[in-house]
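Support request, please re-run this one:
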Amino acid sequence: MSETSPNSAPSAYARSGVDTAAGDLAVELMRSAVSRTHGPEVLGGVGGFAGMFDASALLGYRRPLLASSTDGVGTKVAIAQAIDKHDTIGQDLVAMVVDDIVVVGAKPLFMTDYIACGKVVPERIADIVRGIAEACEATGTALVGGETAEHPGLLGADEYDVAGAATGVVEADRMLQPSLVRDGDVVLAMASSGLHSNGFSLVRHILAERGIGYGDRSAELGATYGEALLTPTALYTAPLLRVLEDPALDGAIHMLSHVTGGGIAANLARVLPRGAWIELDRGAWSPLPVFRHLAELGGHTLESLEGAWNLGVGMFAVVDANRAPQVAAALTAEGLDAWVAGTVSTAERDLAGFEQGAKGVDGGAVRLVGSYAA
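Re-run finished. Output below.
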């Protein structure tokens, strides 16, 4: 129902700054994109109070374990708002949520999103949700529901924030977990597409200190800063699931790690068992130009930024040493550039200088050694 009618004054709610008619229009603009993520398991379509998902497919599992994750995009949204480009933020959101689920070997089932904004601009909201829906479609995730909330007085008219949550499933005896990691396992790194959705407070601080605007063009990046920084987060879920489900590689991948907040070493350490350690060889890869350029602008070394940015690695796989070449080839064939970055050891040693565990997990230990490739 609209907030106003031709024969009435705006309602008290509309006068307070909340436009439910704009919200309804936003839903109509995004409806087709959302519907494309729905298979026969999704009941009720778009617009219900609750998203419904038929879980009868889980009856085929011997012991289905549900995996869940929730996240946002962080201050990357400030750049989208600054240059009025909103069609990539949705992929960032899906990647941050769903690629956490695949870390345990789980297949995502469904996702919901939440957008809080100062004012509903239907076209802007539709751009965001289309991006979410397209990324959900690419990862095999049903977008079963969402909410757009108008918060006038709390957020500016052009401000918004996004968050999402997803649920997946994995057969209990197929779950990836630290206990599967063995001495001698090989660590494969997978390339990132750029900054992904972490460390943007530092990015924004660096540019602000240098007086650089998001519309300014960077010769080093071949685009405006805003365009380069909005490169969407890579989606790893679908290709990783295909490799995990390849009978020829059954059991070859022991653990995965999604490189997000906390940096390179910390995220890998949290998926290792206690007593295991890894020295990652910086020389195995060359950080992308966006990292080198921002580091130079800020007067930082790349090494000092390893706890803030992914520096070119978006995901790690810890794999059986004997089958590491086959796994690397399979990942590359799926479009994930992969390379050997280290080896797991359980030998006793002094772990001073190693990152040990993270996010409350008492895991293994990781440090980076050497110098980055040119």
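The CA atoms of residues 62 and 171 lie 7 Å apart. The chain has two domains: 17-174, 178-369.
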